Amino acid sequence: MKKDKVQLALSRDEAIVLYEWIARFNETGSADFQDQAEQRVLWDIEAMLESVLVEPLAPNFEEALAKAREKGVTRHERGDGAEVEVCERYGAEVFETPARLKVGIARSVREGFLPLNGLRHPPRGDTTGRYIWASEISDRRR
After folding, report:
1. How far lies 107's CA from each of 119, 120, 134, 136, in Å?
2. DSSP character for 124?
3. What pLDDT, in 10s, does the model give residues 3-45?
4. What counts of helices (H) and strands (E) characterise the chain?
5. How far is CA 75 from CA 14, 32, 91, 119, in A?
6. What DSSP letter does each residue of 25-88 carry, written as one string?
C-alpha cells in the first residue's frame, strides 16, 4: 500500500448506513444520528483509522492536519483521481473544478432513475460545465 493511501474495509450493511448518514448530512447540514447504527459505523471507522495513522499522536498533529486539509482542497480543485484517469484514457483535457462553481444535476437523479449519465463541457462563468442526469432504461431505439 502506498504511504499516502489508507484503505478501510466496510461491510455492505455498514456502507449503506454510512451512505445514508452522509447523504442526509450533505442535504440538510445536520450531523444528527437517526439510528445508533450510524454512530456505531463512525466509531468503527475512527477505530480503523486509529490503527493505521500515527499522525494523531505526533506533536505536530495540528500542522499535519492543516497540510492534509489544504492538499484535499487543492486535489479536489485540480480534479485528481478518477477524473484524471478517465481524461488520460480518452485523451481529454483535465479542467480544474473549484468547489465554488456549480454542477448541473437533473431532478431525475433524485428520483432514482437509472442509468446515470454525465456530460462535461469546458467551465464557463460560475459553472463547472458538468451536467448529470438519469433516465429510465428503455429498449426503445431512436
Report:
1. 16, 18, 8, 13
2. B
3. 678 889 999 999 999 999 998 888 888 999 999 999 999 999 9
4. 5, 3
5. 27, 29, 20, 21
6. HHHH-----SSHHHHHHHHHHHHHHHHH--GGGSTTHHHHHHHHHHHHHHHHHHTTTHHHHHHH
In whole angstroms, give the CA distance from residue 45 to residue 65.
Answer: 18
Sign of CA dihedral 7, 12, 13, 16: positive
CA proximity to 130, closest of 109, 4, 141, 27: 109
Q: DSSP class of residue 14?
A: H
* Mean predicted confidence (pLDDT) in 102-120: 85
Q: Identity (one letter) of the amino acid at 72?
A: G
Between the two ends of the chain, the Cα-to-Cα distance in Å is 47
What's the whole-model pTM score?
A: 0.54
Q: What are phi and psi of 19, to 5 degrees?
A: -55, -50
